[in-house]
Write a structure and sequence with these properties.
Layout lengths: L1 H9 L15 E5 L8 E5 L4 H13 L16 H4 L29
Length: 109
């Protein structure tokens, strides 16, 4: 662990803050191969040199990322998946459709 942290610090990268950004402000980088692409998104406002440095660093350490649920070691799948538990002894109820405001009819399909 200390060796990995030292390598990351050697690249002089720091996390300043976490923010949500719009889709237009990101660049998709492929850390995988043509047969098995593994995409990540980075801020498009970074310089090309910084993006290339970041891509090299992430490719070097890509084995530490969990790309699918099966790679999440120690976390049972039942916690990683959404499910709705239904009581089968209770009959299903059918409700009337909700009337939508006509002004929203063109937006919601």
């Amino acid at each position: 662990m200390d060796e990995t942290l030292a390598k990351i610090q050697a690249h002089n990268l720091h996390i300043i803050s976490w923010t949500l950004i719009e889709e237009q402000q990101v660049v998709k980088l492929d850390l995988g191969t043509k047969a098995n692409p593994q995409y990540i998104k980075v801020n498009s406002q970074l310089t090309k040199e910084r993006i290339e440095e970041l891509q090299m660093l992430l490719k070097q350490f890509k084995d530490v990322f969990a790309w699918t649920y099966k790679y999440l070691k120690g976390i049972p799948l039942k916690f990683a998946q959404h499910g709705i538990e239904l009581d089968t002894s209770i009959p299903l109820a059918h409700q009337a459709r909700y009337k939508l405001n006509p002004n929203y009819g063109t937006i919601v399909k």
